[in-house]
Design brief:
Length: 134
């Protein structure tokens, strides 16, 4: 029996709606049940991974540090669309570093985030068995 590939697509800004937090919770639950989980960040969803988020003015809990736990749940396929970064004046350096320990490479710490083009993102979506958009 092959494992289904789940792709969670994040298109919304991190605060102002519940979509980003719900996506993160669903991903962590799926990963806890050993699903093959990937995340994609497009459009304003790229802001979910931005460094230095402050939520004091909006009165919401800052859940952005939780993304750093993804590697502990073997969630290490995190795709960020280059065109979405470009349109918002962001680069990979503006995103928080997300890493995992590769057990196949003597537990070397590796980057989880891969910046991909729109065409590559379409291919990733096509290869996924289940795509959930938030």
């Amino acid at each position: 029996m092959s494992t289904k590939k789940f792709l969670y697509v994040n298109r919304k800004a991190p605060y102002g709606t519940i979509y980003a937090l719900e996506s993160l919770e669903v991903v962590l639950i799926g990963a806890a049940f050993e699903q093959d989980v990937s995340l994609a960040f497009l459009d304003d969803g790229v802001y979910q991974l931005a460094k230095g988020q402050s939520t004091e003015e909006v009165g919401m809990k800052n859940f952005s540090p939780t993304y750093r736990a993804l590697g502990d749940y073997d969630v290490n396929k995190i795709y960020v669309e280059q065109e979405s970064l470009d349109a918002r004046g962001l680069t990979l350096d503006d995103l928080q570093p997300l890493t995992y320990e590769d057990e196949d490479d003597d537990w070397a710490e590796k980057d989880s985030i891969k910046v991909v083009s729109t065409a590559e993102m379409a291919e990733i979506m096509e290869q996924s068995d289940v795509v959930m958009s938030f």
